[in-house]
Write a structure and sequence with these properties.
Layout lengths: L1 H9 L4 H12 L7 H36 L1
Helix pairs in contact: 1-3
Amino acid sequence: MVRSLLKGEKEGLVLRDLDERFRGLASQPGFWSLSDVINILLAMSRKLDNILAKLDQIDAKLNELAKARQ
């Protein structure tokens, strides 16, 4: 199940969907192992890195536009 979660993450799964899957897995008693937790945290970390990179691009573009107006 974790492999399908990571596969979905590679296919451009949005963070909300990842969170929903995470919650679904959390409701299954006895499912978790340390490697499962690490894999999910790594997938979420990659998603957050992508979001931060996009925010940096937006910030740079806004700075360009602000300089152009001056």
